[in-house]
Amino acid sequence: MSLLYEGNSEGPDRTGPAVGGQLKKKLFAWQEECLDIWMQHQGRGIVNVVTGAGKTILALGAIARLEKQLLRENAAGLKVIIVVPQVFLLQQWAQTLQDELGIARDQIGIYSGAHKDLPTRKYMIYVVNSARHCLARHLLEDYQRGAAVMLIADECHHYSSPENSRIFDFISHISPGSSSRYYALGLSATPQAPRFDEKLVPALGVQIYKYGFAEALNANIISSFSIFNLKLKFTPDEEQEYLELSEQLSRVLDVLMRRCPYLNGLSSQHFFACLEEMARESDDSALSGLSRAVLILAHQRKDVVYKARARISCVQNLLQRIPAAAKVIIFNERIETAEAIYALLQRLFSGQVGRYHSEMDERSKKRVLRRYSNSEIRILVTCRALDEGLNVPATDVGIIACSTRSSRQRIQRLGRILRRSGENSHACLYYLYIGASNEEQELMADISQELAGLIPVLDLEYDHESQSFLHPSYQLLVDRGEGNSG
């Protein structure tokens, strides 16, 4: 059975004339419309755009348009400050500024870890961990010297936490209203975050534009794609362990919820954040003990789900059915599982497999991404380190071997395989889940209505013992037919 639908239509051409200080690519219609709206909001706002549709190019278009306006008005020169959540994005932005805007390298400063350029260059790129205690001061110094300042917050959902939001401490010193020389652009495929209204909106502006999967698919901007929800089974021993842990967890949760009824109704993310805080800081030893017990049991149960033997077996059999030329990313949650899959695939597809996760050094991670980009390898096994932000080109197939319940993570992972190229017009995403667990049974349940009628979604089952893939409805018909023939 072939599980990979292949197409060959070309992606849209955005190449424009290379003009110094101007974008070398022609903007999509949605980007032009978005920038019009951004300018109408005095150059402030958050943009919610599906991964792969061109958020970075949009930001460069905003810089170019703002520069032109300031030049027409004989206004102060523009200082551009970009903040990113991870180091690899810093390098990616620096390269894109040079390639797409023609910015000289010596005009670009970086501020991260041991390498901190003086914040006097026209373009400064900060990693948020290094920016928390200085970005607000640096920005305010530029602003108070009379410069127009533009802040670009890439993956802005990261910056609403108490620590990261310190980068916005300057905002109370900025003049309100349209006469201000402060401009801001927040970028994310999933901008909604805790304290969104409290932290992000005052510093970046309201959400001014949304461009989702449906719009990008209809405009032929991202690859068309198919989703396969693949149901797996526990072994008897795994199922028994899962049930025992579930019973223990249920009993402890019962006691905790009677003590803390306010926890009812919280989202999963907020619920576990509260538990971690209580386990760490509560003066009530019984309450902190209950919180720790829930966290430990939940982690142990999740371990059983993530380490289920059927996952690795299913990944192996999928790859043996996928065309040998296909480029594949395999997403995991635990490094241990990723390493096990990597070791197996190295034996089966020698010289074709690489790995990428947070315990690798930066040089090794850069090397494997370069090899994948250059097609020296075609299979990339990764963990959360590759979930967002990184431009991974020309990927045909994504396999989510393990996943959290986070809608944000799933959208970001889907986005990793949807960047168009002339060779990649249709992508496939396989979502593996254990049917007898608390895992979601649909990859994109949150946006299924948006995608209805646009993409094919197929539910399959994988049988570990026979190492075969089954379609439940088809198998039911076969079984009935065999029963009738008897």
UniProtKB/TrEMBL annotation:
Residues 317-466 form the Helicase C-terminal domain. Keywords: ATP-binding, Helicase, Hydrolase, Nucleotide-binding. This is Uncharacterized protein. GO terms for molecular function: ATP binding; DNA binding; helicase activity; hydrolase activity. Residues 36-209 form the Helicase ATP-binding domain. The lineage of its organism: Bacteria, Bacillati, Bacillota, Clostridia, Eubacteriales. It comes from Syntrophomonas wolfei. Gene3D superfamilies: P-loop containing nucleotide triphosphate hydrolases (3.40.50.300).
